[in-house]
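hi! just following up on the protien thing from before. the input was this:
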Amino acid sequence: MGLFDKFKGRKEPESQVPTVPQGAWDNAFKANVNFYGKEGEEPFGAVVLTEGVETILPVAPWAKYGLDGKPVRDWKLVLVSTTEQGILGMLDYRKAMDPLRPYLQEERADMVLTQGLTLEQIRGLLK
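and the predicted 3d structure came back as:
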């Protein structure tokens, strides 16, 4: 925008307005990282995404979390339904991030904020 445009009352084009309401990250549930496994088997990490809950998920938990100082290679995204009151299924975490992308509100560094998914949207992730 030039100097003469300012004199003519023209405004600078507005920058990209954030689509996420202020405070959404503060109000969202921060998903916990849990570890499971049977004795003699390699443990896996699990992060839960619950129906209807805006959730903060780690982008790459394998890079940030470990068990007893050792890296955990296998990670699952556990999909829970409040409607059906239980676990609908589990996805490989690395593969789940791509189909989850349309439901992400925002990404910051190593975390993402999901919208609250409906039961149908969660089922769609399992297909």
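Residues 93-100 form the longest helix (8 residues).
The chain has a mean pLDDT of 88.
cheers
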